[in-house]
């Protein structure tokens, strides 16, 4: 599949949606007492991102941003 439109590409958006959908599985990997407070997905920007708002064991709030960046297509010889 040749990508003709980047900013964002369909593949970037689909991958960002997949990362967002994995939230329940990601939660099982956190330590007890750590939790996801909110998930914000931005799919319509140049590089789609999923922003996780987290609370640690001490009650401090944090943000983790997963940003999807697709590099231009290259021809790979097999």
Would you mind describing this structure in some detail?
The chain has 78 residues and is α+β, with helices and mostly antiparallel strands. It has one domain (10-67): Dihydrodipicolinate Reductase, domain 2 (2-Layer Sandwich), CATH 3.30.360. The protein contains 2 helices and 3 strands; from the N terminus they run ααβββ. It has helices at 10-21, 23-27, and strands at 35-42, 49-55, 61-67. Strands 1-2-3 form a 3-stranded antiparallel β-sheet, covered by helices on one side. The chain starts with 9 loop residues before the first helix and ends in an 11-residue tail after the last strand.
Which characteristics define this entry?
78 residues, alpha+beta, Dihydrodipicolinate Reductase, domain 2, 3-stranded antiparallel beta sheet, 2 helices, 3 strands
Q: How would the global form be characterised?
A: elongated
Largest β sheet strand count, sense and barrel closure: 3 strands, antiparallel
> Would you state the CATH class?
Alpha Beta
How many structurally independent domains? Answer: 1
Contiguous helical run count: 2
Number of strands: 3
CATH topology: Dihydrodipicolinate Reductase, domain 2
Amount of helix = 10-25%
What is the overall pLDDT average?
90
